[in-house]
Design brief:
With 380 residues, the chain is of the alpha+beta class. The protein is built from ten helices and ten strands. The chain binds acetoacetyl-coenzyme A. The site of acetoacetyl-coenzyme A has 24 residues, from helix 4, helix 6 and helix 10.
């Protein structure tokens, strides 16, 4: 067993760190305040090869491993967790899904554009009545001549307003439950497809989260991904990997909280000494660092297992479950260390708490992660 990153992984981490500090840091707070999508930053992430990190070079991707991807998402999310999720959805939900299960024609037409960052993707599974209960799909896909007509509403869709290509899960046969769901590639501008409500959020405010409406939206049969009825399994398998990306995003927020706490406690004096000299503060920082290390180990283990094609789903769930809790705890402690300054927008740590909370909710709530973990342990 080794705990060293290889040269490529270190280079990716360094590149992501530099990009985040130079390109994201100066405008992250303002974009959060204005709920402004980072169009230019996403374009540059594409040029760096960060929007299709695991996609093979033959389809325009970087051909990297999952460990490199985790390192990149951590660094980006340390500075701007909104960018972290935009990147994560495009990489692990959209590109991965198409790379793994898309047809050669779908890869040629869509994956290349997505992996190079020329186009942006979204993943539309959640519905008003199908959040955790994801197989309860109300959006229907009815067979028509040459394709399917999609009708229904998707909600809480990350990247939804800016996406050029959306992977949409819909029921092709409701009588079959989870096994009657299929996945479709829907292009922006397809008649019958529109972006509906944009959500105003607590955190990750510069990423966009919207509802999508489908009204008799005609999708050609060649845009179905995999067999009819494979859509729920497609979504679950894709989300297994996606959860590693969200764990990495949570880790980035936790690390930023730790770093801000260390910095502040060495600058701020109370009762004639630096905060860093008080044992109460030292212990908080020690606990943050220990939890982050443990969360990173779990996340890297899940990533390494996925890289070596070994079963990883329940490790990914553990990583997300734990890293997301650590992110919330570290952000809370960072605010506590900053005192009143931690509570105001002039200081960065209040954003960390707002951004951290969602990591316990999307790509499966913490309760869903516990279902996935316990089912794996109890199934035999
Ligand atoms: N891999 C492969 N197959 C799987 C699977 C997996 N990980 N999970 C389930 N399946 C299969 C089952 O084996 C079963 O197949 P058979 O019928 O052939 O036996 C079928 O799928 C149905 O599975 P379940 O009976 O387990 O389904 P369930 O209704 O009990 O649901 C659940 C299980 C774990 C709660 C699931 O619904 C779930 O993960 N919910 C959370 C959904 C989620 O994560 N949403 C995130 C939305 S996307 C997002 O958040 C993106 C973003 O904005 C950042």
């Amino acid at each position: 067993m080794t705990f060293d990153f290889n040269e490529t992984q270190l280079l990716i981490r360094e590149t992501a760190r530099k990009f985040a500090e130079e390109e994201l840091a100066p405008s992250a707070a303002e974009r959060d305040e204005k709920e402004e999508f980072p169009v230019e930053a996403v374009r540059k992430l594409g040029a760096l090869g960060f929007m299709g990190m695991m996609v093979p070079p033959e389809y325009g991707g970087s051909g990297l491993d999952m460990v490199s991807y985790v390192l990149a998402i951590e660094e980006i999310s340390k500075v701007d967790a909104s960018c972290g999720v935009i990147m994560s959805v495009n990489n692990s939900l959209v590109c991965y899904g198409l790379d793994r299960w898309g047809s050669a024609q779908q890869k040629e037409k869509y994956l290349r554009e997505l992996a190079t960052g020329r186009k942006l993707g979204a993943f539309a599974l959640s519905e008003p009545e199908a959040g955790s209960d994801a197989s309860n799909q109300r959006t229907s896909a009815v067979r028509t001549k040459g394709g399917y007509a999609l009708t229904g509403t998707k909600n809480f869709i990350t990247n939804g307003a800016n996406a050029d290509i959306v992977l949409v899960m819909a029921a092709t046969d409701r009588s079959k439950g989870a096994n009657g769901v299929s996945t479709f590639i829907v292009e922006k501008g397809t008649p019958g497809f529109s972006v509906a409500k944009k959500e105003k959020k607590l955190g990750i405010r510069s990423s966009d989260t919207v509802s999508l409406a489908f009204q008799e939206c005609l999708v050609p049969a060649e845009n179905r991904v995999g067999e009819e009825g494979f859509g729920f399994k497609f979504a679950m398998k894709t989300l297994d990997g996606g959860r590693i990306g969200i764990a990495a995003q949570a880790l980035g927020i936790a690390m930023a909280s730790r770093d801000a706490s260390v910095r502040y406690s060495k600058q701020r004096k109370a009762f004639g000494q630096y905060l860093a000299e008080f044992q109460a503060i030292q212990f908080k920082i020690a606990d943050m660092a220990t939890k982050i290390e443990a969360a990173q180990m779990l996340t890297m283990k899940a990533a390494a297992l996925k890289d070596s094609d070994k079963p990883f789903a329940h490790y990914a769930a553990m990583a997300k479950l734990y890293a997301s809790r650590v992110a919330v705890e570290c952000a809370l402690e960072a605010i506590q260390i900053h005192g009143g300054y931690g509570y105001i927008k002039e200081y960065i740590v209040e954003r960390y708490l707002r951004d951290a909370k969602i990591t316990e909710i999307y790509e499966g709530t913490s309760e869903v992660q516990r279902i996935v973990i316990s089912r794996t342990l109890l199934k035999n």
